[in-house]
Amino acid sequence: MTDRLPPDESGLDRAAALLRSGALVAFPTETVYGLGGDARNSEAVAAIYAAKGRPSFNPLIVHVADLDAARRLALVGPEAERLAQAFWPGPLTLVLPLRPDAGLSPLVTAGLPAVAIRLPAHPLARQLIAAFGGPLAAPSANLSGKVSPTRADHVLAGLSGRIAAVLDGGPCPVGVESTILALSPRPSLLRAGGLTVEDIEAVLGTALALPDSDPDRPTAPGQLASHYAPAARLRLNAVSPEPGEVFLGFGPGSGDLSLSPSGDLAEAAAALFHLLREADRIAGPTGAIAVAPIPDRGLGRAINDRLARAAAPRV
To answer: In terms of residue numbers, what domain contains 263?
Structure first.
């Protein structure tokens, strides 16, 4: 039985107590719901992988309360400091060299010498981390490879009975996962997300590299070739639906569902995972979904990244 906890003091106290006991609690961030477990407790971290059905070679993001907490876990160099000052709390994850005395479970980093760290902006997430009193490993709170959750109902649809509780904070306002950067040997985009490349480059004063990634050996979350997938087949950059397809539109014009009738990329990002789930429900497991073209700029990069992985051949 998975409890649904209210977003108040009683819910936070219960969630923090469960986490301290080694149990798993899903909680809202500004991006998507995360599946939280004590990042220092290998049994709790192993339980995250088991609950999600996630391969253990795929590292997790550690969520912290403040920059000082990040400094205790990783070596935070000058570029990371600049980015943290500009964008934390917020939808940015930095992959940084792991301190030898960090005290994290080695399962969190999948044995890699670096750790992915984020300071979330959602008030409930920050209150929970503070109440818990330590770092939380928290991938998206869904079955591995499936559509990410942006509401508590989405979490329960996939993980009910697999985790102790979900802290219900309502819909997530950003709606796509955090942007992930590596900073060594040069600033590189590992995953497009809720913070735009353009904003990051403006702070760094340089273009981000786009390194080749091996989907069989990910160095950060969200790099598997097939990910975020509904049961129905996806056809991207569709001008119009073919017979039997559910049409997920963008901008003016008709569609069974629309990411944003006005063509607003922030609105589309916030709606993406919820409407993918709705389209999947309408289409059924043997159906198909056609998705209108999305501009590949700003938050459109993150949307197109998720759609491309959702449409990739299933593994």
So the answer is: 233-311
